[in-house]
Amino acid sequence: MSDTGFGLGFGFGGVLQSALEAFGPLCVGIDPHDFLLDEWGLPSSAAGVREFGLKAVDAAAGRAGIVKPQVAFFERFGSAGYAALEEVLAAARSAGLITIADAKRGDIDTSLAGYAEAWLTPGAPLEADAVTINPFQGVGSLASAMEYATANGKGMFVLAATSNPEAARLQSARVQQANTTSSGSDQASLAIPTVSRAIIDDVSAFNAGRVGEGPVGSIGVVIGATIDFAALGVDVHTAHSPALPVLAPGFGHQGALGTDVRRLFGSLAPYTLVSESRSLLQAGPRGLATAIDARAAELRAALV
């Protein structure tokens, strides 16, 4: 059961909806890069990332509704790094923050079920409210993990259209070859979804198939704010039922402006989480709370 101050409602989707209504869409990334540790006067060690994460949680509590620790920056210190992450996740959840573990796990269904148990079991050492997932082996391979998540009031964000430029070639590919020879072949080809669109459609269909899911789905997708939406086949004009949560990197340091969230994400905007890390964290431990306050207010105003 969630320790956040939002209650379970309709599972993770309900928790997320309450947080968005209370604080707006800002998701504070907790990414303890070495250069940031140095700027914060902290060592590049498990103790350093622990202190960094706890300070970030303190700054976000009561100012934003969601934090997203990047697991890799803790994992590099082995078991001590994982122990530090456990403390950061527990502190965030105790502070009433929704926690998204940015782990990007992916595997066949039985192995992925193990990852889901690690990150999404109530009371587990690494318990988070949601986790990022890689669907390269097919969205179908995520089915048991998605079922596990929703059964436990948890969520997932499935990579669909990521903000790194290297992904565009793969994610804009069509899921099957057009088998046409007529002059209408171009139109037929366009009717075949891209990899990104197929992932989004599959996740939306999973949410729609959940009895009693509520107005907001518990399984969301990752869509970068800096992508070429048309090239990747991402449709931001069609509403999903239940609403489809979106975790959106690419804001802040990567160049997208939070004030453009409605223009970029269209009908998806009300449930789009604006993820920022370096652009906020560079304010330092003394300035981070003020930076979060200002950005959260800016984003709330942009969505009015």
Short description:
The protein is of the alpha/beta class and 304 residues long.
Q: Explain this structure to me?
A:
The protein is of the alpha/beta class. The protein has a single domain (about 10-180, about 185-300), classed as Alpha-Beta Barrel (TIM Barrel). The protein contains 13 helices and 8 strands. The chain has an 8-stranded parallel beta barrel with strand order 1-2-3-4-5-6-7-8, surrounded by 7 helices. Helix 3 (about 45-60) packs parallel to helix 5, helix 3 crosses helix 13 (about 285-300) and helix 6 runs parallel beside helix 7 (about 145-150). The radius of gyration is 19 Å and the shape is globular. It starts with 10 loop residues before the first helix and ends with a helix.
Please tag this protein with its features.
13 helices; single chain; alpha/beta; TIM Barrel; 304 residues
The largest β sheet comes out as: 8 strands, parallel, barrel
Number of domains: 1
What order do the SSEs take from the amino end to the carboxyl end, as H and E? HEHHEHHEHEHEHHHEEHEHH
Strand order of the largest sheet: 1-2-3-4-5-6-7-8
The proportion of strand residues reads 5-15%
Question: Radius of gyration over alpha carbons?
Answer: 19 Å
Structural class: alpha/beta
Shape: globular
Give the topology.
Elements (H helix, E strand, L loop, with lengths): L10 H13 L2 E5 L3 H6 L6 H15 L5 E4 L2 H4 L2 H17 L3 E8 L3 H12 L9 E4 L9 H9 L3 E7 L6 H4 L13 H7 L3 H14 L10 E5 L22 E3 L12 H5 L6 E5 L1 H4 L2 H19 L2
Parallel strand pairs: 1-2, 1-8, 2-3, 3-4, 4-5, 5-6, 6-7, 7-8
Helix pairs in contact: 3-5, 3-13, 6-7
Catalytic activity: orotidine 5'-phosphate + H(+) = UMP + CO2
EC number: 4.1.1.23
Keywords: Decarboxylase, Lyase, Pyrimidine biosynthesis
